[in-house]
Each structure stands twice: as C-alpha cells, then as structure tokens.
Amino acid sequence: MVVLLSYIIVVYTNNSSYLYNYVNKHDNSAINGLNMNISTIINSTPDAILKGIARRVKSQRLERNLTQRAFARRAGIGYDAYRRFENTGEITLHNLVLCAIALDDVEGFMELFSKKSYQSIDDLLKTEKVKQRKRGSRNE
Q1: Residue 75 maps to which CATH number?
Q2: Cβ atoms 14, 6 nearer than 8 A
C-alpha cells in the first residue's frame, strides 16, 4: 500500500487527469479501496503538518505585531531555531511547547494523545473489557 500511495502522489504531481482516469478505469481492488481524496494524502505528510503549524504560529506572532527576534526572546528559544521553524517547520517539541506557552495556547498539547471521550455507557463498557497492555508484542 505504501508503494501505491507513493506512486499516486508522483502521478498526481505530474498529471492529475491521468490519475483520475487510471483510478476510474482500472478494477484493481487496492485502487478501488482507496476512498481518500488525493489532497488528503498530500496534506497529511509530516512536513505538510509541520509547515501548517509553523504558518499558524507565524500568523499568531504577526497578530501580536512581534518580530521573529522578539517572539523568540519571549518564548525563551533561540532566534535561529525560531527562524528555521518558520521557514521549514522543523522545531524540537520542547521549543514548540515554549511557543505555545508564549502564545497562551497550550490546550492542544494537553489533549494530544489523550484518551477517547465516550458517547455512551456502552462505549465505556466495551473499552473496559479490553486488556490494558503494558507493552506491545508485534515486531513488524
């Protein structure tokens, strides 16, 4: 499946009409089972997610009328590290949390990888039946 997605992304960037025709004409189960919008695949890459975060942080910084240097100083991170973050999306998790604190927007981090909220008591009862694992057993 990874190979198929890589192929589709390459085809999409070169000729999107060819991709549309290929997916619609071929009866391959792997292709027919792909019910994702191609832009979802492209926008879900780690680089795209990081650059989106950097864009939103930059937007918040500009709303506060701060220079990169002033914001980096306020957040407690190095100017070069912050400038690289805005340009490439690369940042350490520690520095990203410091940026969130400087922007007074840490709620997202508090919810990151949190437990699922339950819609009904039945959902909760089903979850309690699942054994809580202390470590994984698969080495795939």
Answers
A1: 1.10.260.40
A2: no
Q: If you count them, how many residues does the chain have?
A: 140
As separate numbers, helices (DSSP H) first and strands (DSSP E) second, the chain gives 10, 0
Q: Using H for helix, E for strand and C for coil, what is the string for 81-98? A: HHHHHHHHCCCCHHHHHH
| Pair 33, 78 in one domain | no
> pLDDT of 62-110, one tens digit each?
999 999 999 999 999 999 999 999 999 999 999 999 999 999 999 988 8
| Domains identified in the chain, total number | 2
Please report whether residue 19 resides in a domain. Answer: yes
- 62 CA to centre of own chain: 23
Cβ atoms of 50 and 74 within 8 Å: the answer is no
Nearest-angstrom CA–CA distance, 122 and 134: 24
Q: Cα torsion for 95, 96, 102, 107, to the nearest 10°?
A: -140
Residues 6+ apart with CB under 8 A from 74: 66, 102
Do 70 and 16 fall into the same domain?
A: no
Q: Which amino acid is at 65?
A: N
